[in-house]
């Protein structure tokens, strides 16, 4: 069978290594799910996710045109538990916790301008003398 990138296929886990899982797609074709493509988040032990003999549905991520090696992903079929920016309101650098924002800059700007003008005047007087 001819496989294409992005295609969903079913396979059977035939082997587990520290770097990933081998999946038999058909009688003649085998692919690898890298450990980073097994699930979202940290994986301490691969057997917590899959075991040898399990039937899995995977997506074909890449097919090497020379060696015909197939890269698979189980993670791409799973919905992430959270979005990296979903909790923006609780992160202080976005200004929600600290209250720092454009309003505080608006208040401080006149003081900064006065200070800068005084420094410029002082430099002019020092250069004349």
TrEMBL record:
Cleavable signal peptide: none
Cross-referenced SMART domains: S1
Domain S1 motif: 6-75
Pfam families to which the protein is assigned, alphabetical: S1
SUPFAM superfamilies the UniProt entry points to: Nucleic acid-binding proteins
Protein name according to UniProt: CvfD/Ygs/GSP13 family RNA-binding post-transcriptional regulator
Species for this entry: Alkalibacterium iburiense
């Amino acid at each position: 069978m001819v496989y294409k990138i992005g295609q969903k296929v079913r396979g059977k886990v035939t082997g587990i290594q520290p770097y990933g899982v081998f999946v038999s797609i058909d009688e003649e074709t085998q692919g690898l799910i890298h450990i980073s493509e097994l699930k979202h988040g940290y994986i301490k032990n691969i057997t917590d996710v899959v075991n040898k003999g399990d039937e899995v549905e995977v997506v074909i991520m890449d097919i090497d045109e020379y060696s015909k090696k197939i890269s698979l992903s189980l993670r791409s079929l799973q919905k992430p538990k959270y979005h990296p920016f979903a909790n923006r309101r609780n992160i202080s650098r976005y200004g929600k916790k600290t209250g720092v924002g454009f309003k505080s800059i608006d208040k401080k700007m006149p003081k900064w301008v006065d200070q800068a003008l005084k420094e410029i005047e002082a430099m002019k007087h020092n250069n004349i003398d």
